[in-house]
Amino acid sequence: MGTYYFILIDAFTRWPEIHSVKNITTSTTINICNKIFSSFGLPQVLVSDNGRQFLSYEFKNFLESNDIIHKVGAPYHPATNGLAEKTVQSFKNALKALRGNNNDRNRDLQAFLFNYRITPHTITGESLSKLLFGRQIRNRLDLLYPKVTHSTRDTPTRTQLKTRILQEGDRVSVRSYQNSKWQFGYIHKVLGKLHYLVRLDDNNQIC
């Protein structure tokens, strides 16, 4: 459809990165790789086809400077890099199924990536986002679940805290932060829910 797409797949999680580019020069290829690597880190191995930009001296030097091993598939046999080729076919089919309007092409790309990344993979059984981030990224399906507020989710109840309610006359041990010593005494007066006036065994008082 008159547009070049740079497609890179993480072999472990199957996470795809797809970028629309105006040309397929070595410089553009290196720039896109740098952009992806800045988000996810440097790979140990990069597998590509035999495109001229991947076999150029500049690209070879770029990989060597980042300690990345470069492997290429067999010429004229794209199936040797089956993981990438499968994603290419899925992407092409998705673009055909979507609107295909030039003004919406970038939106179609983002829609494909979003849905592809949250869908459980047939091999791993997990979504790509779950494998990459350790969690499923938020999507519209989450709207089907009831919202959990911070007040109900994060605030512990008195039963959960198991706080003991003290009364006047109860025997307690208290710590004086002036000398860091524990002392014993009795609750002399209740000043609040967790605030008491304690009369120590030596007749001194402490709050």
UniProtKB/TrEMBL annotation:
Q: Which GO terms describe its molecular function?
A: nucleic acid binding
Q: Which GO terms describe its biological process?
A: DNA integration
Question: What Pfam families does its record include?
Answer: rve
The residue ranges of the Integrase catalytic domain are 1-136
InterPro entries registered for this protein in UniProt: Integrase_cat-core (IPR001584), Retrovirus_Pol_polyprotein (IPR050951), RNaseH-like_sf (IPR012337), RNaseH_sf (IPR036397)
Tell me which PANTHER family the record gives. PROTEIN CBG26694, PROTEIN NYNRIN-LIKE
Protein known as: Integrase catalytic domain-containing protein
Instruction: List the top taxonomic levels of the source.
Output: Eukaryota, Metazoa, Ecdysozoa, Arthropoda, Hexapoda
